Amino acid sequence: MAMLEVNGISKSFGGLQATTDLSFKVEPGEIVSVIGPNGAGKTTLFNLITGVYRPDQGDIRFEGQSIVGLKPNQIVDRGIARTFQNLRLFTNLSVLDNVLIPQHHRLRSTWWSAVLRTPGYRRREQQMHDLALEKLSFFGPRLMSFRLHQPVYVLSYANRRRTEMARAMATGAKMLLLDEPSAGMNPKETVEITDIIRRMRDEGGYTILLVEHKMNLVGEISDRVVVLDYGQKIAEGAYQDVVDDPKVIEAYLGKRAQDEADSEAAAGGQA
Amino acid sequence: MTGLLSYLVFFLIQALIYALVALGLNLQWGYTGLFNIGVAGFFLVGSYTFAVLSGPAYATHLGGFGLPVAVGILGAMAMAGLIALVVGIPTLRLREDYLAIATIGIAEVLRLVALNARGLTGGSRGAQSIPRPFQGLELGNVASNLVFLVLVAALVVLVYLALETMVRSPWGRVLKAIREDEQAASSLGKDPFRFRLQSFVLGCAIMGLGGALNASFVGFVAPTDFLPILTFEIWAMLIVGGSGNNRGALLGSVLVWAFWTGTGSIAQSLLPSGLQVKGGALQVILIGAVLLLILMIRPRGLIGEERTVSREAELGGDGRT
Lengths: 271, 321
Known about the structure:
By secondary structure, chain A is α/β, with parallel strands linked by helices. Chain A has two domains: 1-79 and 173-271, P-loop containing nucleotide triphosphate hydrolases (Rossmann fold); 90-167, no CATH class. Chain A is 41% helix and 22% strand. Chain A has eleven helices and ten strands. In chain A, the strands form two sheets. In chain A, strands 6-7-8-3-9-10 form a six-stranded mixed sheet, with helices on both faces. In chain A, a hairpin with a 2-residue loop joins β4 and β5. The radius of gyration of chain A is 21 Å and the shape is globular. The longest helix of chain B has 30 residues, at 2-31. Chain B has two domains: 19-223, no CATH class; 227-306, no CATH class. Chain B has 13 helices and no strands. The radius of gyration of chain B is 21 Å and the shape is globular. The chains are: A alpha/beta, B mainly alpha. The interface between A and B is large, with 53 and 34 residues.
């Protein structure tokens, strides 16, 4: 059974058709990338899966059960967590707090258990702390030691991205939706994050759906690639097949460039 | 000398009652980002509930249950919390602006109800002879005030400690997360509505506690005690002291109340008799000027929200990423 199954979903905002009859699947343990030009509907797709928007038509199934109509917090409970393209960290709170917060919905936290300091409360706090460190350690020493207690607003952009990924992992989700995980990172950091995403799958056991613009990252780690343009799927398959697809080249480079390439090829053939 | 001391006791009781209310508001605004501008309304509910539950039998309006002071106080908190629940359920699902509109409206509605529902509240003449705790001991005036001060101070400490524990708990971390970014909080599995409702009801119950103590201390409640200016005063206390910090709420309450009463007596002694009546307006202008000053010089208040930077970082941890 596919872990995530998107079946013919459509979504329009007023007159704008943001997503049209889109279908694809993600199998457990896969890394699938969604690519496409700006405005192709990649982030809209994430918002549809995570319950920020509700599709006008179609169904989204997670582990066989429909998640359409659930609230974002209920979808996290089912096991899908995400990061945001523009980062949505709690900037005034510390790195550690950011990674502790998502755990509370699994370990019940009531205000009165904190006032009474029940033994269970203390034990849960310790568990949460340990799990937070485990997730942060995916990024090596970058978020550890003194960084743990720094407020997020002093962190570099790249470290904020890492914190947000650790936070998504700390929800206890099985599937992660990463929206441009390497945005704002230099080439060296991009290589590093590529490796970390792979380790998140191999060692962490996460199934990953990601939106990304950096093609070297996409090519390096994707089992499959889904290409969107104007809200429609125009190609799907292995990275090499997809990037050679004329429809994909057209979506990225435009029709004329393709026409010219064709006519050049034709001219070359005649000569 | 005794006059000054007894005034000090009197002053502190009032300041600490406001401190309780400011602590309640701090939970809502400082930690959860709930814009409650109907503080006076929840203070009113606490005051009247206490008067009805613990007050003597009144000839013209509800009362005469003669319940112990402690029961009256708990009842006042419960009633203020209940009203908060009724206001919160429809409004806290919406964007924050709606809570502001709803609370300012409900506070005025409650005041007008208090003014007009004579059978319930005594109308414009208010409710009198509201008891103090330990009234049976027949203490003198000074001793009675002292006992009351000890009681209020103990309650402030209790509420402060409880709130401190709560905001440092996982529950408090979620409140702050919702304040920072609601969409992110819900993308991490939190239902913002549920947490906001809890914070709102709890904060309003603490305001009700303040109202009950005030009614008990003054011995008299009337609708004019709950004008919107009261809400403004409490907000000024929280902003001056530093919202998002419970010690800030305490400090702000004492300072602003000192400033408020101080300017009142200065205006009284300096202004010519013809302008005495306008002294109150002068007070409001001055407190407004103080607010502006604070917002310009220390926008986070005198002691703002505690920073979570570690000591190592402050000692100059390297700036690399």
